Amino acid sequence: MPDNQFQLQFPNDNQPAAEYNQKIIMEFDYTLTTAKTFDEAVRGVQDEIAKAGLRVLYVHDVQKTLAEKGFEREPLKIVEFCNAKFAHEFLNKDIKIGLCLPCKINVYVKDEQTFISGMRPIILSQFFPQADLGDRPKEIDQIIQAIINNAK
Q: What pLDDT does 27 receive?
């Protein structure tokens, strides 16, 4: 299975949880490479988030945080962002969706190549099938893809 796919399994009502019978495979992330430098890509993501009418909440510098603990790694920043209206809607459907909030886009370097990667909200319907999220995850998925495409 490719790195950007995951498999969910749901139990049949008559089966114990250990005996799953349904499998769903879906792309978990949307990831592109960019010719921009790491810092340019991070700025580009932040600018595109603002242009999309969303708010950057925090930028985690994972490389710096790990270095403070003695661990080396290539550059990685996690840009957290949100739209209060969307978050409110989702939390009203199922409070546990908060485990997936806020939205995040990662910018990282791997083997001297810069990547921009975001989780695809369309997977939320698989994690929360009873929440009846409608088309909103698809709408947000398109917004995240546009941010990544434009930041590239």
A: 83
> DSSP letters along 137-151, please?
HHHHHHHHHHHHHHH
Q: Residue 2, class by beta-carbon neighbours within 10 Å (0-12 exposed, 13-18 middle, 19+ buried)?
A: exposed
CB count within 10 Å of CB 56 equals: 16
Give the strand order in the sheet containing 113-119: 29-34, 113-119, 103-110, 76-82, 55-61
Pick the CATH number of 28-151 from 3.30.70.260, 3.40.50.300, 3.30.310.70, 3.30.450.20: 3.30.310.70
One-letter identity of residue 49? I
pLDDT value, residue 4? 53
Question: What are 31-64's pLDDT values in tens digits?
Answer: 999 999 999 999 999 999 999 999 999 999 999 9
Count of residues making up the chain: 152
Q: What are phi and psi of 46, to 5 degrees?
A: -60, -40
R_g of the chain, CA atoms, integer Å? 17
pTM: 0.82
User: Can you give the pLDDT at residue 125?
Assistant: 87
